[in-house]
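# nightly structure sweep
# worker-07 picked up a monomer target from the shared queue
# config: single-sequence mode, recycle default, output format = C-alpha cells
# input follows
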Amino acid sequence: MITFKNVTKRFGLITALTEVSLGVEKGDFAFITGPSGSGKTTIIRLILRDLTPTSGEIIFADRNLAKLDKSQLPFYRRQIGCVFQDLKLLGDRTIGENIALTLAISGVSQERQRIRAKEALSYVGLDTRIDSFPSQLAGGELQRAVIARSIIHDPKLILADEPTGNLDPGTAWEIVQLLAKINKDGTTVLMATHNREIVDKMKKHVIELKKGKIVRDRESGKYEND
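# output follows
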C-alpha cells in the first residue's frame, strides 16, 4: 500500500530523512518508532502530502504522490484517516459535529452525517457522547472521539501520530487496542510512537528510525540483538 523508495527530505540545511526505503502492506499494522527528532512525523506528513520529498519516490496504492495535482489532494486524503496527539477538535462544536465535519465538507446530508456519527461513536464506545462538547470529555474519551472521526469515511489507511503521548499507561493501551481492532476489521494502520513498551507488547511490524535513517525494519515487531 505504501512504499518509500530512497526518500530524502531536507528543510534548508537540516536533513530530516536520508535515503529512507520502507514498505507497509495493505492490512498491515506498522509502528514507526524512534526518539524525538528521528523523522517519524516527517514520514506521516509526506504520506499525507503535506510535504513532498527532496528526492526519492513515495507510492500509495500504485500512485506516485509527487505527481498528484493539487486538485486531486482532497480526493486522495479522503482515503486516509488521521489521529493526532493534539486532537484538532473544535471546542465550539459537539463531538458529533466534530467527527461529521469531513462528511459535511463532502456534501453529505445532515441526516446521513448524524447516522454515520452515531455509528462511528458506537464503534469506539462513545455513543452516549454525541451531543457533548470536547471540554466535557476526559483525555481518553477525546482520543476515542478523534479515532471515530478518522474512521467515519471508511478510509483505507489510518495514520496515528503519537496518539497516546498525553495519556496514562492504562488509557494508552486501550487506545492502541482500539486501533488494533480497526486494523483487524480491514484497515491498514501506521502509528508513530516513541513508546517502546507499547511497541514491544504489540509485536507488530516495526520500523525504527534514528537521525532520519532506518536502523531496523522487523516484521515480527522484535528487534535484532535484543
